[in-house]
Design brief:
The complex is a heterodimer of chains A (674) and B (320).
Chain A (H helix, E strand, L loop, with lengths): L1 E3 L9 E6 L4 E6 L14 H4 L4 H16 L8 E7 L9 H16 L6 H32 L3 H29 L6 H13 L4 H9 L9 H10 L3 H14 L4 H13 L11 H20 L7 H10 L3 H6 L1 H4 L2 H12 L8 H13 L7 H10 L3 H11 L4 H12 L14 H13 L6 H9 L5 H9 L7 H13 L3 H17 L3 H10 L3 H18 L5 H5 L9 H17 L3 H13 L8 H12 L8 H17 L4 H5 L1 H27 L4
Antiparallel strand pairs in A: 2-3, 3-4
Chain B lengths: L1 E8 L6 E6 L5 E6 L4 E5 L6 E6 L6 E6 L7 E6 L4 E7 L2 E8 L6 E6 L7 E6 L4 E8 L2 E7 L7 E6 L22 E6 L3 E8 L2 E9 L5 E6 L8 E7 L3 E7 L7 E8 L4 E6 L6 E5 L3 E7 L5 E3 L12 E3 L7
Antiparallel strand pairs in B: 2-3, 3-4, 4-5, 6-7, 7-8, 8-9, 10-11, 11-12, 12-13, 14-15, 15-16, 16-17, 18-19, 19-20, 20-21, 22-23, 23-24, 24-25, 24-26
């Protein structure tokens, strides 16, 4: 089946397509460009390079002649998205809570064996179902409280979908997870039918709440409903009301009531074996049959039809089609009254014939029917496949398959990648979550539990999470760091550093580049810091620079930045000799870039002009050498020599150095042993 | 189920040739025969025009977003023989580099994996492929492969970055030894694979299967398997899937995806490489997925079977 893009021009246009991270882009275009037309050998004039002036006109004519039509076409680009379900607010609970159940299941003890493990898995299944039901309730509330008919329609549709999901899941729980054996199987199926066939509920309520139920026109319908659903006590209770109003039928009533009371039912406990039950049931069945054949109920068609149902008369049961509403209700009723000890593997035969008889060629089975049929036939893979087709998102099949896999029920159906069905579905589901701005975090956990491709899928998807805020970036980072995704860590840090730099937040940029261990970037940012310092005379983000610690070693420039700041600190604390030593080391050890030497030497000036002598003779010689190196190196630079400020500075430095040298020689010469 | 969540009215005055989302799906770049490149902010269903970039003197054929770690950078190529690299600085988009080294229309541009640095491959109708590498400080270094394809080169696509040998974490700061490769498709009906060796680009493989011009090539993202996969489509209506099983990249074998009734113009892979989109002359975009038995199936409805997405089309209103 094809999907029409609404709004797209139906005339013969082509579609250009591009993948976005979550959406896909579709736009109308016409392929076939100048230099690449459909003809095998384009004309010479087109393939040869057009000259500048020609190219302009050729461009226009090129596109026209190629397309053969003059119309420029639509200028619209469509953003198309799959899997809209994750954006439905009311389903949020479904995704969040099922995530919790999923995680619990993954972590649950596999060591538990046999019965306790099964009980555990059944509980998990029940938990999933209660989440579905809770969602249904919310959705129903939403449908009821909205005034917008379109929304109401949407909500109602969602409710039916959720209801169908719960119906299927429940059946799968009975047949696969619990794997109910003959006996309890029927009881479970009865519960299932009672829970899910709700069309008759309002009628039942109406009759029960009326003043005189037995006089209600739908009275017998309700009795029939109870009998069809195996609700014997309720049926008997209602019947008793009828007989008090109608004493003539007392005899018939007593017999019928007795039969209904004695009906053997499977039990959940181990109070009787299957064989015992079968025997009892056979006996009872024959008794019912006798009463029927004797014409005991002949004068009361209602009671007679009930007795016919009790003996499992298919036609009698089928007559009550409208009260059963579905073929699977019919199936269970049939089983109840003809073969209550049905074994799981025998279900398929009854199921197929029930559906055929019920639909009777009038209507054809719907997708839901096919899914249920596949379940009765114990074709698990078929169930999953059909559900994938029918449902609009992967939630259901992913979680159900995972559960079935934990029940060790799925053979490894090797798909192309070598991964199994479970992983395949989980990957699809989790990938879908990633297009949502907050649900993506759930997706991470799902990928974690996909042993073959989870990690690489996570790597590919997590790169596409927009890092709008620092908070989000940190979240993504933490996830990547926890999983040793080093490439992604580096990538995120680099992106954040770049962003910070663009917004002139140097400190932030620096700390991100340190985290990214990106030496080149750290150098770049350090240069910016230094440039800022030269321009403004002070440092920004002092805290960060002061506390660089070992990360200072990431890049030479960064080291210099850190050390230079240290110099300023020492100077501020009046620890001049230390400051002086550091300053000198910065130049002699070539930690400082040449471009910065002038600034450093200028920084030395105040130290040179202190009353106290700070630089030793040797140090002064070093400084002088540095200065000469610097000025010699800049001999070609005209600017340097012509710049008055610079030349003045150099002169001042030379003077200061000379003076210092003089003082220090005297001092060192005078003082003993210095 | 597929639904249109946003319709961006680009106001291009002529045919749109390419539209690309950025990495995060927050921005949309479009280019057109009207010679302009436009950038829109499409967050939350909106469409705000951020930039209307003029600079080309002919129809602009393709746009490509660079990896966000390099900032907001977009490349465009045009019939006017130019490749322009645009960059956003302080909220404004400007031309940051213009390459005019081709003698004919530049048909395709593709950024290399971010691990290699900022490198752009460009394929031109003059038969050459040029590689522009950013070396810093606004400077770009150019390497040209002349006569890569006779008559012309129509498409270029980079291979995902894979470090040969083990995947042990390299000590920080040290660049791993990547083997850079990309694929190109041309008017000589060939798909070629190029490999960088000793800073030179050499033709490593010649893939022959098409009987007419190759219009597009797309190298699939890597999901960690040792196989490499390339999709190619051609004027001959065929789409081939090429796979190479060994790490040395020596034996490529083609598998025919489908023979379409018209020219196939465009192929592209989804992020996790599990779906291939094919845009063809028969007014359709079809989506393909590889099934259990290695056969490629056109997936027909959303979530149908083991992976289903709808085929998107327009004009065929009555099909159910």
């Amino acid at each position: 089946p094809t999907q029409v893009v609404p709004g797209a021009d139906p005339s013969a246009r082509q579609l250009c397509f591009a993948w976005g991270p979550a959406e896909v882009l579709v736009c109308e275009t016409r392929f076939g460009r100048a230099g690449g037309s459909r003809s095998r050998s384009p004309s010479r004039s087109q393939s040869r390079s057009p000259s500048r002036s020609q190219s302009r006109s050729r461009a226009l004519t090129g596109s026209v002649t190629d397309t053969g039509e003059g119309a420029p076409g639509s200028s619209r680009v469509f953003l198309v998205r799959r899997d809209q379900d994750i954006y439905i607010q009311t389903l949020r609970k479904l995704f969040n809570e099922s995530h919790g159940i999923f995680m619990g299941l993954q972590r649950s003890e596999d060591e538990l064996a046999g019965k306790s493990r099964k009980a555990q898995l059944v509980q998990v299944s029940k938990n999933y179902r209660s989440v579905i039901r809770a969602c249904m309730e919310d959705m129903h509330q939403a449908a009821v409280s909205t005034r917008d008919p379109a929304l109401q329609g949407q909500y109602s549709t969602q409710v039916s979908i959720l209801s169908a999901m719960e119906l299927i899941w429940n059946l799968c729980e009975i047949l696969f997870v619990e794997a109910a054996a003959a006996g309890p199987l029927l009881l479970r199926l009865l519960d299932w039918v009672r829970l899910h066939v709700c069309d008759v509920d309002s009628m039942v309520r109406e009759v029960l709440s009326s003043e005189n139920p037995s006089k209600h026109k739908l009275f017998w319908n309700v009795v029939d409903v109870f009998v069809l659903q195996g609700r014997m006590d309720e049926a008997r209770h209602l019947l008793s009301k009828e007989v008090t109003a109608n004493p003539t039928s007392m005899n018939m009533y007593k017999i019928l009531d007795d039969l209904m009371k004695k009906m053997p039912m499977p039990s959940l406990g181990n109070t009787q074996t299957l064989t015992e039950l079968e025997l009892k049931w056979q006996h009872w069945h024959e008794e019912c049959q006798r009463f029927l054949q004797d014409g005991t109920f002949a004068s009361n068609p209602h009671m007679e039809s009930i007795c016919k149902i009790l003996v499992g008369d298919e036609d009698a049961i089928l007559e009550k089609k409208e009260l059963m509403t579905t073929w699977y209700h019919f199936l269970v009723t049939r089983l109840l009254y003809s073969h209550p000890t049905v074994k799981p593997m025998e279900l398929r035969f009854y199921a197929q014939s029930s559906m055929d008889l019920f639909l009777g060629g009038e209507s054809s089975p719907e997708p839901l029917d096919m899914i249920l049929m596949a379940a009765f036939e114990f074709e698990m893979h078929q169930v999953i496949k059909e559900c994938s087709i029918v449902l609009s998102n992967w939630w259901f099949v992913a979680h159900l398959t995972d559960l079935l896999d934990h029940c060790k029920l799925l053979q490894s159906h090797n798909l192309y990648f070598g991964s199994n069905m479970r992983e395949f579905l989980l990957l699809e589901y989790a990938s879908g979550l990633f297009s949502h701005h907050s649900l993506w975090q759930l997706g991470v956990d799902y990928f974690d539990h996909c042993p073959e491709f989870g990690r690489v899928y996570l790597e590919l998807h997590i790169e596409r999470i927009p890092l709008n805020t620092e908070q989000k970036a940190l979240k993504v980072l933490r996830i990547c760091e926890q999983r040793q995704m080093h490439e992604q860590v580096r990538s995120v840090c680099k992106i954040m550093a770049m962003k910070a730099l663009r917004n002139n937040r140097l400190g932030s940029a620096l700390s991100w580049s340190i985290r990214a261990k990106d030496a080149a970037f750290a150098t770049l940012i350090s240069d910016r810091f230094l440039k800022d310092y030269c321009e403004r005379g002070c440092f920004s983000d002092l805290d960060l620079i002061d506390n660089l610690g070992p990360s200072m070693l990431l890049s030479d420039r960064l080291t210099f930045l850190g050390k230079y700041r240290e110099f300023h600190r020492l100077y501020g604390e009046k620890r001049f000799p230390e400051a002086a030593r550091l300053l000198l080391t910065l130049m002699t050890a070539h930690i400082a870039p040449c471009s910065f030497w002038m600034t450093l030497l200028t920084d030395a000036l105040p130290l040179l002009e202190q009353k106290e002598i700070i630089f030793s003779a040797e140090q002064t010689y070093e400084l002088m050498r540095c200065l000469e190196d610097l000025t010699a190196g800049n001999a070609d630079k005209q600017k340097f020599q012509e710049d008055d400020v610079e030349t003045t500075k150099v002169e001042m430095l030379r003077l200061a150095l000379a003076r210092n040298l003089a003082r220090v020689i005297v001092k060192e010469g005078t003082v003993e042993g210095s | 189920q597929v639904s249109v969540i946003n319709t961006v009215d680009t106001s291009h005055e002529d045919m749109i040739h390419d539209a690309q989302m950025d990495y995060y799906g927050t921005r949309l770049a479009t280019c057109s025969s009207d010679r302009s490149v436009k950038i829109f902010d499409v967050r939350n269903g909106g469409q705000i025009l951020i930039a209307d970039l003029r600079g080309h003197e002919g129809p602009v054929w393709q746009v490509a977003w660079a990896h966000p770690m390099y900032g907001n950078i977009l490349a465009s190529c045009s019939y006017d023989r130019k490749v322009i690299i645009w960059k956003e600085d302080n909220g404004t988009w400007e031309k940051t580099y213009e390459y005019t080294g081709h003698d004919s229309s530049v048909n395709s541009v593709c950024w290399a994996p971010h691990d290699y640095g900022l490198i752009l491959a460009c394929g031109s109708s003059d038969g050459a492929i040029s590689l522009l590498s950013y070396t810093g400080d606004g400077q770009w270094e150019v390497k040209k492969i002349s006569n890569a394809h006779t008559i012309g080169c129509n498409a270029v696509s980079w291979a995902p970055a894979v470090v040969p040998g083990s995947l042990i974490e390299q000590p920080s700061g040290q660049k791993p030894n990547y083997v850079k490769r990309f694929a190109s498709g041309g008017c000589d009906n060939l798909v070629k694979i190029w490999k960088e060796e000793d800073s030179q680009w050499k033709e490593e493989q010649k893939l022959e299967a098409h009987s007419d011009w190759v219009r597009d090539v797309a190298w699939a993202p890597s999901i960690g398997l040792p196989t490499s996969t390339i999709a190619s489509c051609s004027q001959d209506g065929r789409v081939f899937i090429w796979t190479c099983d060994d790490a040395s990249g020596n034996s490529w074998s083609p598998k025919l995806l489908h023979k379409f009734s018209d020219v196939v113009w465009h192929v592209s892979w989804s992020i996790t490489a599990n779906i291939l989109a094919v845009s063809g002359g028969d007014n359709k975009v079809t989506l393909w997925k590889e099934s259990v038995d290695g056969l490629w199936a056109c997936i027909s409805d959303v979530n149908k079977g083991q992976g289903g997405v709808s085929a998107v089309t327009e004009g065929q209103q009555n099909e159910q």
